[in-house]
Write a structure and sequence with these properties.
Elements: E1 11-16, H1 24-36, E2 47-52, H2 54-57, H3 64-80, E3 89-92, H4 98-107, H5 112-116, H6 119-126, H7 133-136, H8 138-147, E4 153-156, H9 161-178, E5 186-189, H10 218-226, H11 245-253, H12 256-268, H13 273-287, H14 289-299, H15 302-331
Parallel strand pairs: 1-2, 2-3, 4-5
Helix pairs in contact: 3-14, 4-8, 4-15, 8-9, 10-13, 11-13
Bound molecules: adenosine-5'-diphosphate and tryptophan (TRP).
Length: 346
């Protein structure tokens, strides 16, 4: 089968870095889509693999206790938000050491120039900050993450599309050199390319310190919502809800009817932003109420979460082991099988 031919099985895969607790941007921009791609859900793939990218996080989180706790919290959050271990494989990246070996194989076909153009590294360099080889080679590790599971669909935000291109490039080069080893993946962008705004109106991101965390303590969350920046136009002036970041956040969480009423209120004018903020506090509480309940149950049972991760890692390793064996045979690392064509995909 040529690498770009329609695959027999659609397999979604994505990773999320445990560099902080998940915020609304992560949920509406990424996690919600993971859940929609689980088998049985409305946009389902045949299989879904999701992992907590702790090897990637090592380039930023240098405190071991914090990293451990963030990885556990990420697992609990993902499960609470609806990731179902019966339908998707949930695991921790570093529990699959095959990926690290695959990274090396890919590194040998990676042109330096390709990595020099990648934005994570380029941005840091342009800001005059020191970059380590981990950050420089980050797209190669990400390519191995994807290729190790024969993933066909990679749900990501806009910022990660470049890395999927790199992955396709490396897979294509490897296949060209050694035969049909890797499946070429396609990115799946969040519908509408949603960019969730932060409390200051810029894109919500940990790096801008403008995030509202999904499972933040309700009192702290309320404080942050009440401090969302707004403009100083007079109350009576009609306003356009489109492009207003406070309205955008409300629209993400409010039921349809409330959203239409709020849009109307904006257009008519005569309201205060304080009212909108209060409505947002309530909408967020209602929207995530079930998830908070599930989170509390999971928190009370850390053994269950660890068992889910262990089962996920076992399934992920089995697949990654097959792919790695295929790649090793294809490039000549397994003696005695070179001429048999066993390096090729079945
Ligand atoms: P951060 O910018 O806070 O460090 P990450 O880069 O770890 O967040 O993002 C993890 C995932 O969440 C990515 O798929 C990214 O595209 C998505 N994401 C993060 N922030 C937003 C946002 N404000 N709007 C939409 N998607 C987002
Ligand atoms: N680099 C991604 C991010 O920062 C996380 C990630 C690592 C990933 N490996 C991946 C995403 C493989 C998709 C597929 O958001």
């Amino acid at each position: 089968m040529p690498p770009d031919a329609p695959p027999r099985t659609s397999r979604a895969l994505s990773g999320i870095q445990p560099t902080g607790r998940f915020h609304w941007g992560n949920y509406f921009g990424a996690i919600r889509q993971y859940i929609d791609l689980q088998p049985g859900a409305h946009q389902a793939a045949d299989e879904a693999y999701y992992f907590i990218a702790d090897l990637h996080a090592l380039t930023t989180v240098r405190d071991p206790a914090r990293l451990r706790s963030l990885v556990h919290a990420a697992a609990v959050d993902l499960l609470a938000l609806g990731l179902d271990p019966e339908r998707a494989v949930l695991f921790v990246q570093s529990d699959v050491p095959e990926v690290a070996e695959l990274t090396w194989l890919l590194m040998t076909v990676t042109p330096m120039g390709l990595l020099e153009r990648c934005h994570a590294y380029k941005d840091k360099k342009n800001r005059g900050l020191p970059a380590d080889a981990g950050l420089f080679t980050y797209p190669v590790l990400m390519a191995a993450d994807i290729l190790a599971y024969d993933a066909t669909i990679v749900p990501v935000g806009e910022d990660q599309v470049q890395h999927i291109e790199v992955c396709r490039d490396l897979a294509g080069t490897f296949n060209h050199l050694y035969g049909d080893v890797f499946t070429l993946p396609n990115p799946r962008l969040v519908e509408g390319g949603a960019k969730v705004p932060g409390t200051d109106g810029q894109k919500m991101s940990k790096s801008y310190e403008n995030t509202i965390e999904v499972f933040e303590d309700p009192a702290a969350q309320k404080k942050k919502i009440m401090r969302i920046t707004t403009d100083s136009r007079p109350m009576e002036q009609p306003k356009d809800p489109e492009g207003d970041h406070l309205f955008e956040l409300f629209a993400l969480m409010a039921p349809e009817g409330d959203r239409l009423r709020m849009a109307d209120l904006y257009r008519r004018g005569g309201f205060g932003y304080g009212e909108v903020k209060k409505a947002l506090v309530e909408a967020a509480a209602a929207y995530f109420a079930d998830a908070r309940g599930r989170r509390a149950e999971l928190e009370a049972d850390p053994g269950r979460v660890e068992a889910i991760l262990a089962a996920g890692a076992a399934r992920a390793r089995a697949r990654a082991g097959d792919v790695l064996a295929r790649a090793r045979r294809a490039c000549g690392l397994s003696r005695g099988e070179a001429a048999t064509g066993k390096g090729r995909r079945p």
